[in-house]
Design goal:
Blueprint lengths: L1 E3 L10 H10 L6 H28 L7 H16 L1 H10 L5 H13 L1 H14 L4 E2 L2 E2 L11 H35 L2 H11 L6 H32 L13 H27 L8 H32 L2 H10 L5 H19 L2 H4 L3 H27 L21 H22 L7 H10 E6 L2 E6 L4
Antiparallel strand pairs: 1-5, 2-3, 4-5
Helix pairs in contact: 2-16, 3-5, 3-6, 3-9, 3-10, 3-15, 3-16, 4-5, 4-9, 5-7, 5-10, 6-7, 7-8, 7-9, 9-10, 10-11, 10-15, 11-12, 11-13, 11-15, 13-15
Length: about 450
């Protein structure tokens, strides 16, 4: 039984009310939302213009593509990390995560198109595995020359399929509700997506199994994508850079950003989507603890890698420090450290901040900025290294500071805008909170008074 001293906000227990309230959010289209969508659409088009302009102007110069690689790593990391916020509580059977599970799945499926579009020219610019018979250092030992390009792209496609599959499986009962309670085009969509789901005992018993299988599959693919992307698009491009912890630190930063995105979306839906009764204080309290934990994990992984280079003092270790810590991106490193660890740690360490509605969202915005700076700190210097030096034992020439040009800025703004626009589009089809999850929670939970506090008694049928 969980307790909370605040006034409890409890979701309606009437199934008809829950269904009408949650599905009504998919039909409402305020003028402000339409204006925002048009603005995001314009920025998305400008982002595509920026990518095309970048390819036409700097298509032959690998050293100018660092910000493109950074925005790809940032978007795929944070959007891909969002479903992990739903997967872990699902495995632990934590009922507090039911209202935010759908949001996490939606975020995970929102960046599919953007990631693929940005990945294509980056693969073109990626240094070849073998040049004049000399194989550059990478994880593809004795592999065919097309291995980095093929497996990197395939891994991203696999992550996209797993994210879309996880969203579809978890939303299957709501598609059936759309089929049975809508008209016109929405009814056709619901009928097509729901298939033969009618809520039989067998279908409900297999639903949890399907979500569990897809969640497990997504987790393994997500980690695999982090390994190949982080190594092929940054580590292997810097001569002498060896770091066994780096791929997992890269994944940890993505999970931190994913938690931040879920908190931000939950706060927006509570404030502007009339979801106060569903996204209560317990949800933000739990998310705040996750945000605090990921900030601590970030500094743990960073320090575990940093201490090896700091005390190693070899030529390659010093080159790593000069390139990524005290070199051309030293100010970005400081900003990344402050926003990824120092600021969110100091902010979320206070109980009153975590146990509130607005406290965790402030920490989420701070952490999200930190992940963005961290990706710039890593990928921009790595891509700025002269490709002629890629076969050296260690980096002997540290590149200068590279600032974003107009094409980079357009691409960054446009790609982020397209992700947000995709989230809005998905919200027009299915609600951000699963109707069936709220209904199931109402059947398993009951608000009670525990001494002087209010609490929730939750049944554990399985």
């Amino acid at each position: 039984m969980s307790t909370n001293e605040h006034h409890m906000e409890w979701p309606p227990s009437d199934p008809k009310v829950v269904k009408e309230e949650l599905f009504s959010s998919t039909k409402k289209g305020s003028s402000s939302l339409k204006t925002i969508s048009k603005f995001l659409g314009v920025l998305s088009v400008l982002g595509l213009v920026g990518l095309i302009g970048k390819f036409l102007i700097d298509g032959g110069d690998q050293t100018q593509w660092g910000y493109v690689a950074a925005i790809l790593a940032f978007i795929f990391s944070v959007t891909g990390g969002a479903p992990m916020v739903a997967i872990a509580p699902f495995i632990a059977k934590a009922n507090w995560a039911r209202p935010i599970s759908r949001m996490a799945h939606v975020i995970g499926a929102s960046a599919v198109i953007v990631n693929i579009i940005i990945m294509i020219p980056l693969l073109w610019m990626l240094p070849p595995l073998v040049v004049e018979g000399a194989r550059r250092r990478s994880i593809w030992f004795e592999a065919p020359v097309y291995s980095p390009h093929f497996w990197d792209f395939l891994s991203l496609i696999m992550l996209a399929i797993a994210g879309l599959g996880l969203l579809y499986v978890s939303a299957l009962p709501d598609f059936a509700i759309m089929r049975d309670n809508s008209e016109g085009f929405r009814k056709k969509i619901g009928k097509f997506l729901a298939g033969g789901f009618v809520g039989s005992t067998v279908q409900w018993s297999t639903l949890r199994m399907r979500v569990g299988v897809m969640s497990t599959l997504y987790f393994f693919i997500y980690i695999f994508v982090h390994v190949v992307i982080s190594i092929d698009f940054s580590l292997s491009m810097v001569p002498g850079w060896r770091d066994a912890i780096y791929p997992m630190a890269h994944a940890m930063g993505g999970i931190q950003g994913g938690v931040a995105l879920v908190i931000i979306l939950a706060w927006i839906m509570r404030k502007y989507g009339n979801y106060e009764n569903y996204l209560n204080i317990n949800v933000f309290w739990a998310l705040g603890r996750l945000m605090f934990a990921t900030s601590l994990m970030w500094i743990y992984f960073f320090y575990s890698a940093f201490i090896v280079f700091w005390y190693g003092k070899s030529m390659s270790d010093n080159a790593w420090l000069d390139l990524l810590i005290r070199g051309p991106m030293v100010y970005v490193f400081i900003l990344g450290m402050l926003f990824s660890f120092v600021f969110p740690w100091w902010w979320l360490i206070w109980n009153k901040v975590r146990n509130s509605i607005n406290g965790p969202v402030i920490g989420a915005f701070i952490a999200l900025i930190g992940v963005f700076f961290e990706r710039i700190r890593i990928y921009v210097p790595a891509w700025s290294v002269d490709p002629k030096l890629i076969h050296d034992k260690w980096l002997t020439v540290i590149p200068g500071t590279l600032y974003p040009d107009i094409w980079d800025i357009l691409l960054i703004l446009g790609s982020i805008s397209f992700v947000v626009l995709t989230v809005i589009f998905i919200s027009r089809i299915i609600p951000f909170i699963g109707v069936w999850e709220v209904q199931q929670f109402n059947l398993l939970a009951k608000p009670v008074k525990y001494i002087k506090a209010h609490g929730i008694r939750v049944a554990k049928p399985d």
